[in-house]
Amino acid sequence: MKTVIIFDHPYTSTASENVPHQRSFLAAIYKQVITQLKAENSEVDLIDLHADHFDPVMSAEDLSNWRRGVPINAQVEDYQNRLLDADQIILMFPIWWEVMPAMMKGFLDKVYAKGCLYQAGSMQTKLVRQPKIKVITTMGTPSWIYRWVIGAPLLKALFRGTFLKTKLFHFKWYSFSQVEKKSLAQRQRLIQGFKL
Length: 196
Prior knowledge:
Keywords: Oxidoreductase
CATH architecture: 3-Layer(aba) Sandwich
Structural class: alpha/beta
GO molecular function: NAD(P)H dehydrogenase (quinone) activity
Strand content: 15-25%
CATH class: Alpha Beta
Pfam families: Flavodoxin_2
Order of helices and strands: EHEHHEHEHHEH
Helix content: 25-40%
Number of strands: 5
Family: Belongs to the NAD(P)H dehydrogenase (quinone) family.
Distance between the termini: 14 Å
Protein name: NADPH-quinone reductase
């Protein structure tokens, strides 16, 4: 099985160690995910958006290519080809202001593009392997407030508005909330106990 991980955090996927102001709980979870996938003999392909210097901004030229169903640039085309070969796609990012950061949004805008990864009109995905979509997030907002007061906008945008719309039905969301309020030992237990 081939798993493509799209990782979005400014400190990159390498920030898993407990170094103040250069650490990411998300990167520590990534490290645990990699360990699990390797134990399952899964092939893992990492797209680390910040390490790759991905540009999330859609320029006028980019939009012209997008509308014609042409890959925006060589990096985007490479990402698209890697996704076409995936049995499982894992998106990893922090939730900022209740939704995904700009880098992940730009990735979806530019990479999951009509004519390239889904058919215009029918909205049918071109990801013929029907990959499992898994989303792993961290956020400061308490889970119950995010779901019941704010209305889980991420689920609406990603599951309903993107993947379900393009007929990708295998979707699962793993959310870690308020990890900054937990002790180091509590965070370590969360990481060690995490299973996809």
